[in-house]
Amino acid sequence: MSIRAINAEAGLGAASAHYHFGSKDAILDAVLIDAGADVLAHIHALTTAMVDSGATPNAKQIVNLLAIPYRKYLGEDPDKGVRWLTICGQLSLANDPRLFPVEDDTAKLLRKLLERAYPHADDDSLELNWSLTVNTLIVMAARWSDASGAQSRALSDEKFDVLVDFVAGGLETLMRKGRV
What does the DSSP 8-state code read for residue 97? Predict the structure, then answer.
């Protein structure tokens, strides 16, 4: 989408977005920060608490570190949440580092939990299988919400639980010893 198209969609003058943001990347960064700061902070807090507990998590507990904040955001503002998750899904599929900023150590904390849960897994398996897990959760939460025929685009708790179980089951299957 061009900056001109962004301006037109927002009902702004031809140069408005460029004047305020300077580039499409800056607009994307602003969208990620606006919606994502609270979600990332929530993920970080949940992840930090689990790391600090010393517990060895299972796949569902690890997936829920992402799912709980996503579900909360979708519940608070379903339309904005679906649009934000759709953007995050595209960035996740492209392995874009903006999803977890360098100054944030959430990705490292998640990695610690994965290593704790799957001590037999090699680095490549951890990276690849976690990437697939995150991509599936984000993309499917956005798509399933967007496809909802209900008045609200928010996924019901029951449907979100089904998605979390599905994604966690996939992670568990992938991480079994000897599977990549």
Answer: G
Distances (CA, A) of 75 to 71, 112, 167: 6, 29, 20
Global confidence as pTM: 0.80
Q: For residue 30, give every residue at least 6 positions away whose Cβ sits within 8 Å of its Cβ, in sequence order, or none.
A: 21
Percent of the chain topping pLDDT 90: 39
H helix runs in the chain, sequence order: 3-10, 16-21, 24-53, 59-76, 78-93, 106-117, 123-146, 157-175
CA–CA distance, 1 with 60 (Å, rounded to integer): 36
- Indicate if the alpha-carbon torsion angle 180, 71, 89, 106 is positive or negative: negative
What's the confidence (pLDDT) of residue 3? 64
Q: Which helix (H) or strand (E) holds 121?
A: none
- CA distances (Å), origin 39, targets 17, 55, 71: 25, 23, 10
The pLDDT value given to residue 59: 97
Give every CB contact of residue 6 below 8 A, 6+ residues apart in sequence: 17, 24, 27
Per the listing, tokens 């996503």 go with 70
How big is the chain, counted in residues?
A: 180
Token digits for 54?
Answer: 């010393």
d(CA 99, CA 93): 11
- pLDDT at residue number 42: 94
